[in-house]
Design a protein that fits this description.
The protein is an alpha/beta fold. It has two domains: 24-271, Aspartate Aminotransferase, domain 2 (3-Layer(aba) Sandwich), CATH 3.40.640.10; 274-398, Aspartate Aminotransferase, domain 1. Helix content is 38%, strand content 14%. It has helices at 20-40, 47-59, 71-81, 99-106, 125-135, 167-177, 230-239, 261-271, 274-295, 324-333, 363-371, 383-398, and strands at residues 64-68, 88-92, 110-113, 136-139, 142-145, 151-156, 180-184, 205-209, 223-227, 301-302, 317-321, 372-375. It has a seven-stranded mixed beta sheet, with helices on both faces. The chain has a three-stranded antiparallel beta sheet with strand order 10-11-12. Strands 4-5 form a two-stranded antiparallel sheet. Helix 6 (167-177) links the parallel strand 6 and strand 7. The N and C termini lie close together (12 Å).
Amino acid sequence: MPLSLTQPSPAMQVPLLDLKQQYRELKGEIQAAIEKVCASQHFILGPQVRELETKIAEYSQCRHGIGVSSGTDALLVALMALEIGAGDEVITSPYTFFATAGTIARVGARPLFCDIDHDSFNLSPAALERLIEERCELRGREWVNRRTGGRIKALMPVHLYGRLCDMDPLMTSARRLGLQVIEDVAQAIGAEDGAGKRAGSFGHIGCLSFFPTKNLGAFGDAGMCVANDPALAERLELLRVHGGKPKYYHPFIGGNFRIDELQAAVLNVKFEHLDAWTARRQKNAAFYDAAFARADLGGAVQTPPRAAAGRHIYNQYVLRVRDRNPLRQHLMAAGVGTEIYYPVPLHLQKCFAYLGHASGAFPESERAAEETVALPIYPELDETQLQYVVDAIADFYRR
């Protein structure tokens, strides 16, 4: 219900995300790192960038890290490095942040959407197999879209909310079709499967985001590509500096996709705390799971199902709920921040109308867009705040 002028102030404020406490705890280290860069006056692709690239590549179980200007540019430069463009199609999820499909369109290729799994919100291996059977065929040595004639060149799975996709069957399908695999790891740094294999290390290129809201967040935009093939890594490095090697000589066209040295310095400080922050997010998620179970709200609230194995890093904690919009109004009045990730699946976005998808084309994605709401999950929350969120939700449904 909306907050009226006569309504008392909320008993507590629990924002969706509050980075101020994290900064207060690291302020001295961060300011010292920034001052070191300022004193050096080395702002472009310096030692801080090289250090970060080494750390993130190793953390992601890859041989090479290539720092870039954002998570979006990581996806874009990955597509460029794999020479995906006009006449090509890339299979991906319609239930994700816009950049996933937006970068495919920007290189002149066509997004080929595939529905998600109900529990994980990630690309469904079963749906991928149905898509291949129903919409793709082998012509000569290339797999093509029967309807458009477009060449199926790549698969772009998204590890949404910090949970790893079911990569083994996805990779099996990709190998059968001869597809390049670009992993969207924007929300999933350090997520892994039951064998301990990490997000970004399965495909040809993994694309990470260090947007401030991520588990490892910069002081602005920043991102990285990780890869195991040295030739592909070198191509990514060249593409981020306009395709030039040596300087002022350009064998191909790239762009200005460089990560900033100051951002790398901040991220190097924060990186040392990443696993501890992830552990706190996991602890908060476990608290929510138990507290909602105790609240016994029946079918009104569904907590995120846990994977049988692996490491979920909980960039977001996302519920399926009944009466979502009135619930969000109630929570806002109670001082609890929420968000919808994402209210309109990509196949129903106006800019993708040319793809010809109507409502009902991808039912699991559409259902998720209608039912989901994200709760505060950041590491600095305490149990009193977490219980307050659960109590506020229980109060709404018990009324």
